[in-house]
Specification:
By secondary structure, the chain is an alpha+beta fold. The chain contains eight helices and 16 strands. Helix 2 packs parallel to helix 3 and helix 6 packs across helix 7.
Length: about 325
Amino acid sequence: MRALLVVNPAATTTSARTRDVLIHALASDLKLDVATTEYRGHARDLARQAAESGTYELVVALGGDGTVNEVVNGLLHDGPAPDALPRLAVVPGGSTNVFARALGLPNDVVEATGALLDALRDGSERTVGLGLAGGTPGTRDEAVPARWFTFCAGFGFDAGVVGRVEQHRERGKRSTHALYVRQVVRQYLSEPHRRNGVITLNRPGEDPVEELVLSIVCNTSPYTYLGNRPLYASPEASFDTALDVLGLTKLSTSAVARYGTQLVTSTPERGPRGKHVVSGHDLTDFTLQSQVPLPFQMDGDHLGLRTSVTFTGVRRALRVIV
């Protein structure tokens, strides 16, 4: 089997020596070509070239969730075609690795490589659904190109936290879970809309849900991790269904304490709940609109400010080795 390994040399939890060992291990079972990313978006470009060349059966992403997101967008540049596109494999090298862990892969790079080789020998794979998000026609964001995401997107508060973390990383700080927690607190203290939400959820055939303060869109569950603790914002979300959405209509101090505790103690059967919680399951098409520009993120990548985002849940979009 011919495969392309896309390596992010800046991956948080891998060293040059570790990468060399992993490349040697993969090359023992695959006809392996290796490409190292050199700029933001390079993994997307490499994966697109691999898909268009027709010479690769497999593309392996070695890096964090951002690298995986770029590879997925490269593979799906011309749309989903599971039987025609190369399969995707992931070796986690980031700080959180939500997509890989949601697939049931080990979070350790060496163990994950061993599991990948075992899966290839056994022919073990699954076809997963993905989310697609883009600008909404008739709004200031209509020219924003559609982009795929693998596990979650956030519009508003959640994305503001991601943006703060990225700013600290650009200044040289490590992406740690303690850093995320600090930025959650700071985002809350500076959030101007925490008592009067400005987000509206629009679903075909249903009344709009207005005044949301927070909105998280999930393609799988858990939607992220706090250290080794999984957080289940939408426990029913799955790679086998369309998208789930969680919204909150209030972020007072008491509401934050209540729903924050529910999120930290959430389980695969029980997530945040209460009179200020809005949720939707297995949604194929919906839109989140805001009265003012708000931060937007996908798969932990801050994408700037938007006033409107249209979401599409696409079942059976891509084959993945597991």
